[in-house]
Amino acid sequence: MSKKIVIAHRGASGYLPEHSMEAKAMAHAMNADFIEQDIVMSKDDQLLVLHDHFLDTVTNVATVFPDRARQDGRFYAIDFTLSEIQSLQMTEAFITQEKAVYPARFPLWKSDFKVHTFTQEIELIQGLNKSRGRNIGIYPEIKAPAFHRSEGKDISLAVIQTLKHYGYHQKSDAIFLQCFDPHELLRIKNELFIALDINLKLVQLIAETAWFETGHYIGGKKINYQYDWMYEMGAMQKISEYADAIGPWFPRIVDSRSTQQQLIFTQLVEQAHQYNLLVHPYTFRRDKGEIPDYANSFNDLLNIFYIKADVDGLFTDFPDLAVQFLQGQ
After folding, report:
1. Smallest Cα–Cα separation from 18: which of 326, 317, 322, 320?
2. pLDDT, tens digit (0-9, with 9 covering 90-100), for 299-311
3. Is the dihedral of CA 104, 110, 111, 115 positive or negative?
C-alpha cells in the first residue's frame, strides 16, 4: 500500500484566508504532503493563485474598481493587471462583504493579505523545503482552460512552462497537476508534455454536471460539460489512459444516505484502483454543517475515507488534523 497523503486545500484555509501566502506557509509548517494552488491568468499574462477567475468573493475589487465589472456583474481576474490585483485587499471568502462563507474562520477584512503569483508560491514552498529539510509537493489546478482560450490565453502552456522552469519534470517529482477539463488533460498529455519534454502526474477532477464547472465555447457560446459518464462502468479504464489519479467530490464515494450504523460505499474507489488510479476526494472541512451525519466527528470522517473507503489522499482545509490522524494509524 502506498503512503496515504494529505493535500492542503488552498493551503491551511481553515485557519487563514484561502490561497494567501500565509495559509501556504502554515500548511507547510503543518507538514501536509502537498499544497494546492488554483491558477488563473491576469490581463498581462501573469499566473495568479486564486480559486476562481473572479476577484469579487475574496477581495475589495468592487470597492476599488466599481466600474470594471462585466455584464454579469462579476469582476474577472483576466480584466486586471497583476499590479492592479496586488493593490487589492484579500480576505476570507465571503457571500457579502459583511458575511463570510465560514463565519467561525479568520475574521473578514482583518490584517493584510494579497493575491500572489504562482511563481511566488513555488518559491515559497521550495524555499521552505530547503530551510526545513522537507520535500513537500505542489498540487496546481489549471482553472477554466476553455474560458482562458476564449479570451486568447493559453493558460496550460504557461503553467507547464513555469513548472519546467522550477524543476518539475517527471512523474516521480513532488507534483500532481489537476484539471476538471478532460479535453485539456488529453491536450496536456499528448501535446504539451511532448513539446516541452516533461511528464508529470495528471489528475482528472470530477465535478457534478449541475455545478456548471467546465464549459466549452462554440461560436462564443458556453456549452456545459457533462460529467455523468465518469461514474459509469468502464469510465475508470478510459480515464486511466491519460490520468494518474481522480479527484471526485466525496459524496460520490460514501453515499449520502449512509448512517452511523450503516455506511454505503459506491464502487468508485474500487474501480479506480483496478486501473491503478489514485483517488483524492475533496473537500474535508471541520466547520459547522460540513461533517455528514454518518460521521460522529471530523476524525471519524477521516477514518471512514482513509481507512474504510481506502482513498489514497484527500483535500482538506484543516491539514493538521489529517496529518495527526494518519500519524496515529
Report:
1. 317
2. 999 999 999 999 9
3. positive
Local structure of 222: helix, strand or coil: strand
In this structure, the number of other CB atoms found within 10 A of the CB of residue 244 comes to 17
For residues 104-119, average pLDDT: 98
Q: Which domains does the chain have, with CATH numbers?
A: 5-53+115-327 (3.20.20.190)
Q: Does the pTM of the predicted model rise above 0.85?
A: yes
Q: Is 265 exposed, middle or buried (0-12, 13-18, 19+ CB in 10 A)?
A: middle
- Which pLDDT band, with edges at 50, 70 and 90, does 326 fall under? very high
Cell numbers standing for residue 193: 508534455
Q: Is the peptide bond before 283 cis (omega within 30 degrees of 0)?
A: yes
**Measuring CA to CA, which residue among 192, 279, 295 is closest to residue 243?**
279
Catalytic site residue 116?
Answer: no
Q: Residue 72 is inside which H or E element, if any? A: none
Q: What is the DSSP string of 28-71?
A: HHTT-SEEEEEEEE-TTS-EEE-SSSBSTTTBSHHHHSTT---T
> Confidence class of residue 193 from pLDDT cuts 50, 70 and 90?
very high
Whether 9 sits among the annotated catalytic residues: the reply is yes
Of the candidates 19, 28, 51, 116, the residue annotated as catalytic is: 51
**CA-angle at 251, arms to 247 and 254, nearest 5°:** 105
Greatest C-alpha distance within the chain: 55
Catalytic residue, candidates 9, 19, 53, 116:
9
